Amino acid sequence: MLRSILRALPLRCQLCHHRLEQRQYPWCETCSQSFPTSPRCMQCGLSTPYTMETCGRCLNTPPAWDNLVCLGDYTFPYDTLLHKFKYQGHYWLAPPLARLLAESIDEPAPCLIPVPMHWRRRWVRGFNHSTVLANALASQLERPCLDNALVRTRATQQQQGLSRKARLSNLKDAFTVRGNVPSHVALVDDVVTTGATLTELCRVLRAHGVTKIDIYALCRTPTDGKQKK
Ligand SMILES: [Zn+2]
Ligand SMILES: [Zn+2]
What we know:
There is one protein chain. This protein has 2 domains: 1-34, no CATH class; 39-220, Rossmann fold. By secondary structure, it is of the alpha/beta class. Helix 5 (94-102) packs across helix 7 (129-141). Helix 9 links the parallel strand 5 (184-192) and strand 6 (212-220). The strands form 2 sheets. A 4-stranded parallel β-sheet has the order 1-6-5-2. The chain is globular, with a radius of gyration of 18 Å. It has helices at 2-7, 29-33, 56-60, 78-87, 94-102, 119-125, 129-141, 164-169, 196-207; strands spanning 67-73, 112-114, 150-152, 175-177, 184-192, 212-220. Helices cover 32% and strands 15% of the residues. The structure holds zinc ion (ZN) (2 copies).
């Protein structure tokens, strides 16, 4: 499956459009050398002066999860690649992006769970990008992917017309756990911004007996310095 997808990769770099010498990734050697790699806090995933297990921010306000692994900030080239994957239907970008992310994951969680999307939104977009990504990553890490372990039960319609604050508090009880979930899981999302959704998902999982939660995300949006909920 993965091999057939890789064989179907384009002949030109998705970033600079030069002809690809190798077909391992859909971007060229030169572009891949310019991919930003900045040290991060291993818990919140935010950029730090050097790699650290827990930054000052996490000491003050620990995130709801235990570890966060990401490729980098939501800037070039990740934003370009993600936009193609998410909004232009370039599903085939999921395996190479997942392979890149897998290189940063030393001890994978026993199972992966995608951040759920409400069925109405999935119906409009045609697919849940987190599920596609989680499955690609799971096959890279040789771990099972529990597609339906988390379900979004609250209709998006109920969220409409609410202020941002009300919308965030409205996330409460918007998700439910289905079936048995191991005590250590990894949640997979494309971009972590405020982390509000992940925080609520962690609360639901912990209430279900989960004790360790890793987050695997492609990008982490830098915050304005405040710990947003
Ligand atoms: Zn290139
Ligand atoms: Zn931190």
